[in-house]
Design brief:
alpha/beta; 6-stranded parallel beta sheet; two-stranded antiparallel sheet; 10 strands; 11% strand
Length: 351
C-alpha cells in the first residue's frame, strides 16, 4: 500500500499578505503530489486541546510535516503536550538560529542526566517541523516536503500474505486497486476554527530532567504532576499573559514560550550547554557588565512580582525566587555539572 505523508500548514496569527501568500503557495504546490495530504489549521499554539483543529491533528496516524511560524522545537513540543507524538524527523532546511559553524563543532560533552523523554516509548512514525520564518520562497518548503516524502517511501510492499514468490492474479489486482486509491491526490483539509490568542509554557521533554523547579517557582497553579510524578503544564490558561519568568529559572532551558521575542525562550536551537555561555545573556537579561544589569533569577523574580501585583496579590520578591530542588531528584556533588553548581550557588546566596 502506498505511503502517505500529511503536511500541516499552521497559519500565522497575523493577516500579513506576504505570510498568507507563502502559506497558499505551499498548499498549492503540494496539492498535485501523489501520496501527500495537506491540512491547514489556525496557529498551532492557539489551538484548544478539545477544539476542531487539535482533534483533526490527533486523528492523523502517519508521518507528519508541520510548517509553522515558530521554531521547530516549539512546534514539536506543542504537539507532544497534546499527545501527538513521534520520532523527531531531521530536516535539511536551515531554521533561524542555525549556522554552519555550530554544525562543524559538535558537542562532545557527556550528559548522564535522565531526561523525561528517555522514559517514553515514542511511536515509530516521524514528525518533521519546518519554520516558515526562515525562508521567503515557497519552493524551499515544497522541495523539502518532496524530499521527506521520498525519504520515507519504502521499496517494500505488503500484499496480504504474499511474502515470496509470485502473487496470484487476484492478489495483484487487490494491491493495484489499493495503491491507486491511496495515491490519489485530494484537496486540502481546511480547519475552520477561530481560536483566541493564548500564552502558556511548553516543556521540551528532551531537555527536561523533572527537577520540578518550575512548579516550585510558579505561584499561579500552571504546573502539576501526572500519575508517574512527571511535570506537566496542568492549567495552561492560568499562565499570566506575557510572563516568561519560569523559563528563566529552568536549569535546562526546557521551558518554551513560542511567541516570546527572545529566541532562546521562544525555542531556538541555542542551548545553555556549558558555562561558555553567560546565562543572563542567554535568557534575555542585559549584559552583566552594564549599569543596572540583572541576572536571570532577578529578572524572573521581578516579572513574577509584577504579575502577582496585577492579579491583586502581594509581591514576594527574591526570597522565594530561588526554587528548591525536589528531594526525589537530588543529585550527589560528584554528579553535578557546572550548570547545577551555578544554580546551587545562587540558591545559597542570602539576598
Amino acid at each position: 500500500m502506498a505511503h502517505r505523508l500529511t503536511v500541516v500548514v499552521s497559519q500565522s496569527r497575523s493577516q500579513n499578505p506576504k505570510k498568507r501568500e507563502l502559506e497558499e503557495q505551499i498548499v498549492a504546490g503540494l496539492l498535485g503530489e501523489r501520496g501527500i495530504d495537506v491540512t491547514v489549521v489556525p496557529n498551532l499554539y492557539d489551538l484548544k486541546p478539545d477544539g476542531t483543529g487539535m482533534l483533526c491533528l490527533s486523528g492523523i496516524a502517519g508521518d507528519l510535516v508541520v510548517c509553522s511560524w515558530m521554531f521547530p522545537r516549539a512546534a514539536r513540543w506543542i504537539l507532544d503536550r497534546n499527545q501527538i507524538r513521534g520520532q523527531e524527523g531531521i530536516s535539511l532546511l536551515k531554521t533561524l538560529g542555525e549556522d554552519e559553524e555550530s554544525e562543524a563543532e559538535p558537542d562532545t560533552e557527556t550528559d548522564d542526566k535522565q531526561r523525561v523523554i528517555d522514559r517514553r516509548d515514542q511511536p515509530p512514525r516521524k514528525i518533521y517541523c519546518l519554520d516558515l520564518r526562515a525562508h521567503e520562497d515557497a519552493l524551499n518548503y515544497i522541495g523539502e516536503v518532496k524530499r521527506i516524502a521520498q525519504e520515507l517511501a519504502t521499496p517494500t510492499v505488503e500484499l496480504n500474505g504474499w511474502i515470496k514468490g509470485s502473487p496470484k492474479p487476484e492478489q495483484m489486482e487487490r494491491y493495484l486497486a489499493a495503491e491507486s486509491i491511496e495515491s490519489t491526490p485530494a484537496g486540502p483539509i481546511v480547519i475552520d476554527e477561530d481560536p483566541t490568542r493564548r500564552w502558556y509554557p511548553v516543556i521540551d521533554m528532551s531537555r527536561c530532567t523533572n527537577c520540578l523547579e518550575c512548579i516550585d517557582f510558579c505561584l499561579f497553579g500552571v504546573y502539576g504532576i501526572d500519575g508517574q510524578e512527571t511535570i506537566l503544564v496542568e492549567q495552561p490558561d492560568n499562565c499570566r499573559q506575557g510572563c516568561p519568568a519560569c523559563s528563566r529559572v529552568c536549569p535546562e532551558n526546557a521551558i518554551i514560550f513560542p511567541q516570546h521575542k527572545t529566541p532562546t525562550i521562544a525555542g531556538s536551537p541555542e542551548t545553555a550547554g556549558s558555562m561558555k555561555i553567560d546565562l543572563s545573556q542567554l535568557f534575555g537579561a542585559p549584559d552583566p557588565g552594564a549599569p543596572g544589569a540583572e541576572k536571570a533569577f532577578d529578572v524572573a523574580a521581578r516579572e513574577r512580582d509584577e504579575q502577582l501585583l496585577l492579579a491583586g496579590r502581594e509581591a514576594v520578591g527574591i526570597e522565594v525566587s530561588m526554587p528548591k530542588r525536589h528531594t526525589a531528584n537530588e543529585q550527589t556533588e560528584q554528579s553535578k555539572d557546572d550548570l547545577d553548581l551555578l544554580i546551587d550557588s545562587l540558591d545559597e546566596l542570602d539576598v
